[in-house]
């Protein structure tokens, strides 16, 4: 298969002019409006320190959202990322704290754990043809149980080396933000400029047609499952590093829904075949900014809950009525 | 324990784990029912089995309690059974119904929904079994194991206020990381805020944010710091949330032992106890001893079976600070 194959759907470029971008990503308008409102009402939303905080918080979400978005575009789903995140953080922290391994070894251990979970998901879904929803839902529970069995007590005190993963700054920017930017760029380039990126769309649109077109309909989604597992474990290691602690039962609990919300808000269709990394970035920023702004406004708990729900539905409705991206 | 999706996800998590974190930590349930302990028909008999139904299996305290309770039970020739409720009230009801049907002689249950547990407790008593309510009281029960959850908050709030008077001259800024979703959290929150504001009225309360897990504690405190970089105190309804606040302050450039900063929480969780012991600005935790709880889990049903008067137990909560090294070491050992 070559990039010139006319049978494959052609992904849209990331941006073809400001108006086109806005039309395809109406969440951008909502995001800008939200930022303006929060800035006007709090006076500190756009402070560099606050923006840095939002970016750092949203980084782990973005790191997982990118490969998950690719997976959803290809017509699959991974609901096990919350538990994989916990396992990754625990394995990394355990290697760094209990076994005094270098940060690199600890990180590799975490990533290996995530890759293993992703590979199991991938084999069961792509080669055995089992439902991704059921398989990854099962893995969500199974991996959580495994993590609790292996690490029944909280881990903490991972050392200054491991703290570097989440706490280092590169050119003044927090390391997790740099990693997230790299993941976002890699995801966007992959989708826009590689044959495999087109295959992702093709598989998501019509798996059988893609197969008949000569596309490996198992290999690409399998790789995306592994990438999603690795990304979740990386996010877990970052969170464990930032907090210098990890708890098997609660780390990453509910994260799968948060990241899926970001992906869907960004315009990625749950049915597969459409979506963009720019949309995912907007979804991530929207969630991060909304939470932060409500905190700055000191909105009471239950009003926050209601405001978030309403904002999400509004964002999703906008995304729904916008022109589809990616095909 | 954790918040919303930044919406749906975190709210969902909260619903389950607010109760979890707090309860696990040893808070108890609404005390709105008359605690009329009824003598068990199995009084005077020797127990061979106790069923421990602790629903929040995702919490570290679960493993600790099972381990310590099993060891304690073994000392008395008793085997300990456990349920796996996964923080689900429905699953809990099913498991308890099974135990009653199987006639497990003594059941120690921490009901997720106290009102829903009444018929189960009544069925157990009617079947001649011992029912011990953990974390509160039911109308139908043999005895109970209680915790004063408001007292933990009060101890923490009072200690923080005293510190603010001594080190900040009664001025400064405080943020509370609270829980308003369940009765247990509300009680702890009330105890903490009331005690602090009463004893340190000159300290400005700049935020009161829902947070029971470290991740939320971190992000909320970061946001608060963006608006109030001179924040002095963070008090948490759980140690987990407070630990997130502790990390946020450090990441904002606060030295670990900053003399003008105070963080405190409730639970006595290991990372927080270590931070207290190391002399950081994480200065206090209102802690329950897992060993005391485990002892009550075994000893209260034994006392009921033996026909003792007033078999119920009140597990004490204490505030640990840097000077309490021996107490911290003992708590850490129990959590090891």
Please give a structural write-up.
Chain A has one domain: Orthogonal Bundle (ABC transporter involved in vitamin B12 uptake, BtuC), CATH 1.10.3470. In chain A, 71% of the residues lie in helices and 2% in strands. Chain A is built from 14 helices and 4 strands. In chain A, helix 3 crosses helix 9, helix 3 crosses helix 12 and helix 4 crosses helix 11. The two termini of chain A are 18 Å apart. Chain B is of the alpha/beta class and 336 residues long. Chain B folds into 2 domains: 147 residues, Rossmann fold (3-Layer(aba) Sandwich), CATH 3.40.50; 140 residues, Response regulator (Rossmann fold, 3-Layer(aba) Sandwich), CATH 3.40.50.2300. Helix content of chain B is 47%, strand content 18%. Chain B has 11 helices and 12 strands. The N terminus of chain B is likely disordered. Classes of the chains: A mainly alpha (327), B alpha/beta (336). At the A-B interface, helix 3, helix 11, helix 12, helix 13 and helix 14 of A face helix 1, helix 2, strand 7, helix 7 and helix 8 of B.
Secondary structure layout plus pairing:
The complex is a heterodimer of chains A (327) and B (336).
Chain A: H1 18-24, H2 27-42, H3 48-73, H4 81-97, H5 103-127, H6 132-150, E1 155-156, H7 159-167, E2 169-170, E3 173-174, H8 175-193, H9 195-205, H10 207-212, H11 219-243, E4 245-246, H12 255-265, H13 277-296, H14 301-321
Antiparallel strand pairs in A: 1-4, 2-3
Helix pairs in contact in A: 2-13, 3-8, 3-9, 3-11, 3-12, 3-13, 4-5, 4-6, 4-11, 5-6, 5-7, 5-11, 7-11, 8-9, 12-13, 13-14
Chain B: H1 8-25, E1 49-53, H2 60-75, E2 79-82, H3 89-102, E3 106-109, H4 114-126, E4 130-134, E5 143-147, H5 149-167, E6 173-178, H6 183-199, E7 204-210, H7 214-227, E8 233-236, H8 239-251, E9 262-267, H9 270-277, E10 282-288, H10 290-305, E11 313-315, E12 317-321, H11 325-335
Parallel strand pairs in B: 1-2, 1-3, 3-4, 4-5, 5-11, 6-7, 6-8, 8-9, 9-10
Antiparallel strand pairs in B: 10-12
């Amino acid at each position: 298969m070559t990039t010139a194959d006319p049978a494959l759907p052609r992904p849209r470029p990331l941006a073809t002019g400001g108006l086109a971008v806005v039309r395809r990503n109406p969440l951008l308008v909502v995001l800008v409006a939200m930022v303006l409102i929060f800035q006007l009402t709090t006076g500190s939303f756009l402070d560099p320190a606050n923006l840095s905080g939002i970016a750092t918080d949203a980084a782990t979400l973005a790191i997982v959202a990118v490969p998950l978005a690719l997976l959803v575009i290809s017509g699959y789903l991974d609901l096990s990322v919350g538990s994989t995140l916990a396992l990754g953080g625990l394995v990394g922290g355990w290697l760094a704290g209990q076994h005094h391994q270098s940060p690199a070894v600890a990180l590799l251990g975490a990533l290996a754990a995530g890759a293993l979970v992703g590979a199991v998901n991938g084999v069961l879904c792509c080669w055995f043809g089992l439902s991704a929803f059921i398989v990854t839902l099962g893995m969500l529970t199974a991996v959580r149980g495994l993590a609790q069995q292996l690490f029944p007590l909280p881990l903490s005190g991972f050392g200054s080396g491991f703290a570097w993963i989440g706490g280092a700054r590169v050119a003044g920017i927090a390391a997790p933000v740099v990693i997230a930017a790299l993941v976002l760029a890699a995801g966007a380039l992959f989708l826009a400029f590689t044959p495999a990126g087109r295959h992702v769309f093709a598989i998501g649109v019509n798996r059988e047609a893609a197969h008949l077109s000569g596309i490996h309909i198992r290999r690409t989604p399998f790789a995306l499952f592994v990438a999603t597992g690795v990304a979740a474990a990386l996010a877990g290691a970052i969170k464990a590093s930032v907090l210098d602690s990890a708890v098997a039962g609660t780390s990453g609990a509910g994260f799968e829904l948060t990241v899926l919300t970001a992906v869907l808000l960004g315009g990625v269709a749950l049915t597969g075949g459409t979506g963009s990394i720019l949309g995912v970035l907007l979804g991530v920023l929207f969630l991060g900014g909304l939470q932060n702004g409500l905190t700055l406004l000191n909105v009471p708990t239950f009003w926050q809950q209601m405001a978030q729900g309403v904002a999400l539905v509004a964002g999703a409705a906008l995304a729904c009525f916008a022109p589809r991206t990616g095909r | 324990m954790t918040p919303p999706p930044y919406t749906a996800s975190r709210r969902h998590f909260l619903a389950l784990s607010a109760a979890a974190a707090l309860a696990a930590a040893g808070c108890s349930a609404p005390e709105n029912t008359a605690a009329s302990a009824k003598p068990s028909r199995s009084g005077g008999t020797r127990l061979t089995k106790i069923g421990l139904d602790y629903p929040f299996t995702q919490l570290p305290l679960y493993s600790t309690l099972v381990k310590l309770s099993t060891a304690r039970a073994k000392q008395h020739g008793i085997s300990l059974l456990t349920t796996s409720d996964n923080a689900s009230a429905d699953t809990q009801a099913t498991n308890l119904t099974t135990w009653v049907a199987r006639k497990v002689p003594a059941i120690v249950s921490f009901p997720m929904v106290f009102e829903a547990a009444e018929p189960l407790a009544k069925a157990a008593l009617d079947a001649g079994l011992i029912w011990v309510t953990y974390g509160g009281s039911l109308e139908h029960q043999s005895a109970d194991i209680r915790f004063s959850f408001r007292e933990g908050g009060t101890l923490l709030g009072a200690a923080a206020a005293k510190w603010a008077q001594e080190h900040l001259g009664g001025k400064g800024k405080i943020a509370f990381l609270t829980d308003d979703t369940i009765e247990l959290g509300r009680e702890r929150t009330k105890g903490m805020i009331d005690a602090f504001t009463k004893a340190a009225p000159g300290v400005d309360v700049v935020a009161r944010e829902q947070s029971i897990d470290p991740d939320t504690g971190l992000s909320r405190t970061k946001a608060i710091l963006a608006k109030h970089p001179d924040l002095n105190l963070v008090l948490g309804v759980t140690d987990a949330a407070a630990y997130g606040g502790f990390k946020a302050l450090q990441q904002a450039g606060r030295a670990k032992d900053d003399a003008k900063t105070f963080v405190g929480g409730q639970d006595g969780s290991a990372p927080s106890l270590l931070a207290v012991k190391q002399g950081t600005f994480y200065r206090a935790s209102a802690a329950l001893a897992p060993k005391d709880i485990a002892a009550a889990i075994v000893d209260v049903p034994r006392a009921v079976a033996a026909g003792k008067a007033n078999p119920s137990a009140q597990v004490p909560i204490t505030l640990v600070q840097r000077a309490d090294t021996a107490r911290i070491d003992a708590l850490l050992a129990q959590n090891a």
